[in-house]
Amino acid sequence: MKGITGQAGSFSVTVVQHPRYVDMDKCIACGACAEKCPKRVSDGYNEGLARRKAIYVPYSQAVPLKYVIDAEQCIYLQKGKCRACEKFCPSGAIRFDDTEKELILQVGSVLLAPGFKSFDPARLDTYGYGELADVVTSLQFERILSATGPYGGHLVRPSTAASKHDTKAAPRNIAWLQCVGSRDLNRCDNEYCSSVCCMYAVKQAIMAKDHSREPLDCTIFYMDMRTQGKDFDRYLERARRAGVRFVRCRVHTATRNAATGAVQLRYVDDNGLSVDEDFDMVVLSTGLEVSPEAVELAGRLGVELDEDRFARTEDFLPVATRVPGIYACGAFSGPKDIPQSVMEASAAASAATESLALARNTRTRSVPAPPQRNIAREAVRIGVFVCNCGINIGGVVRVPEVAAFAATLPNVAYVEENLFTCSQDTQDNIAAVIRDKGLNRVVVAACTPRTHEALFQETLVSAGMNRFLVEMANIRNHDSWVHADDPDAATDKAKDLVAMAVAKAALLSPLQQTDLPVCRQALIVGGGLSGMSAALSLASHGYPVHLVENSEILGGNARELNATWRNADIGAHVRELIAAVEQNERIQIHTGTRISRVDGFVGNFKTELDDGTARTTVEHGVAILATGAVESRPTEYLYGEHPSVVTHLEMDALLRHGDTRVTGAKSVVFIQCVGSRDDHRPYCSKVCCTHTMQSALALKALDNDVDVYVLYRDIRTYGQRESLYRRAREAGVLFFPYDPDRKPSVVAEADGVSVTFEDPVLGQRLCVDADLLCLAAAIEARDNDGLARLFKVPRDGDGWLLEAHQKLRPVEFATDGVYLCGMAHYPKPVEESIAQARAAASRALTILAADHIRVGGVVSRIDEHRCVGCRGCMNVCPYGAIDFDDEQNVARVNEALCKGCGACAATCPSEAPVLLGFSNPQIYAQIRSALCA
Q1: How much of the chain is helix, strand and coil, in % rounded to 5?
Q2: Structural contact between residues 39 and 73, judged by C-beta atoms closer than 8 angstroms
Q3: pTM summary value
């Protein structure tokens, strides 16, 4: 992106398209060019652990799967000699005359998502990176574990990589060093926490144990374990149970042990003694930084960066830069994990299109699908496409052998093996083969249909076939991954899976879908910060919203909070938000109202609202659940028994009103993780550590002489909130870690409480007489059980609403048309709640903006002649998609609600329900094929 002119709503953007020197229309990705290229260079994708040619595919699953010439490394482009690639290219795809092009794009908004770069530990002289081969970065370790990585997924020490099949090449113990390039002002100027490192180190340790053929010892050296996300603490405890060792310290140096060749780490243990310990490998958990290129881009666009070089955004506008019409998301606006990045991407899309709503669909183009071929009178002709998946499958399964076997199966008219069947060029090829060979059914032997079936269905549509005439054989997840050590058995199993798929495919018939109209209204349950933010976003896009709040007033928990971590006034923002909602003519507010009944399905819901005096029914196409959470009431530390013991929200109220308990306090103690991270609530409430820092700094601002003590398990001021932790320490706040097996004790005194705890440095128990004790009480889910049943959405074991996929679909339910946001999903700070609210609105817009929705396909239908009215199918249907016709005494399926899970078909003793696409004859054919193998 070279430059930008204009203003929000009408930008002219100049972008530079660099030359590839390869004609993408002619390139067939055969690899002959790379095979003959004499120039080998370091492979950046594999983090320098392998080498590639000057002409290469950037990574194994690149889209499009085409080659590109690295102009800085090409011998001809640098010295005018060679041209070997051009000579051996069978399709004449090499274009050395390719030139740089400038394109001018007319757009209304700009979204910046340039990502991050990993910190380069070569800048540090303490860990031996760059000198010791077995000291690697976290990204390098990711590539080592990857099936498409430099060692084919084998866990190998880089120093012995040439002999990866030698047992000596495999490490016996690995250490992870946290906070390399993060939380460090002295050596790298990165004060902030990178948010993701603790979690990915735990993940890598577990994965390393799974990859290792021999017992593997894993040790993580850390300062604070910051696993603050949903279910992250459970994952941490899983690692502990798996034998991962956690050592709280910062490693001093890494050197080579001359006697053993191992990497020797020097650190100080809990007893203050210096320890030297050898490891076969050391992984540096490197932090996230904004790249120089992204900084330069921000400068060209006039986007302001903060002191950490991230895009500056506001807490109440978390995806908006200070340039109108330009938005930022992902790690460019601060270090964050995948779920939050995905949320922010949707939030940015929503924010970027609000002002463009009037221009919706004025420049859209639709690609007409070819007419669907009638195959009713055709003989069965099956095409089988077997995927190598790089070495993901082909590294274990002998794919050519499987393809040859498939050619011998009944009704198979064509067989082909592909490097990556999911790549766009292969998709185009499959569509062409279907037309040229007259195929009328397709079997794809590749990875999981969970992620790729829809892709192959679209390929069939583009070839003029019904989308449901494709069957997948999962020879990756079900085969190569689980039989990686036995290629013979894996190959035999792949043949069996393909044979079963072919047997079923022969019985496939076209399934039909029906178009239904969409009611272009939204229902939002919950009138707190998230609910109001989502309502305003949808209204700004032009859609009517019903905002339902159980209490008599709007605002929710935000009414009880003082400020964000950046010290923005939450109360003032809530008042502005309420005024904006009340004045918006597209938003109808229902306070003092509860949901009493929900009928319908995506695009066509009917919900009954009960305000205590009357019941009304509203129609809507989508629903967003934003019911929030509650601060728990502690059952320990004298809470509720002594006036000097308060919770965070109560402390905010005391500070807000200038209560004498805070203005006159000379000693204040905070205890973290009260009621959370235990057996009852095995999760982190995420906001408590930040809240404690804010309150401690507020107390110090009132009286710098007040003594403030924080008793904690891990300080989790993640991301840029680390600055609060530093400021608190500089202000004189004292921090003492405690073990959950030896919690602090509290005794009532006349003028306060006495708090006793153990100081791990002194090795003694200390006692503090506190005027005020603040408990970081756990945040717990509201009782959403009834609401969840009405909308047919799940909750997890802790009571939080359960999204469809934690990373890929973080604001959606498996139930189409229903979304979630805010603390109903999981505890989170204000700016993350607002971002998630906008994200939920963005996903809801995909339904509201559509003219119709499609239902049907792989759904159940009930044979009324077989149904005996036992209602067993109704009892097991998890989506409430089956109703009962009392007059006919038969069950009926609502195809719009049915998800095709097959529970009804598996339960019915009469075989009345038929799951289309998975009928009993089709399943029996697969079973017979398996038994005949």
Answers
A1: 30, 25, 45
A2: yes
A3: 0.87
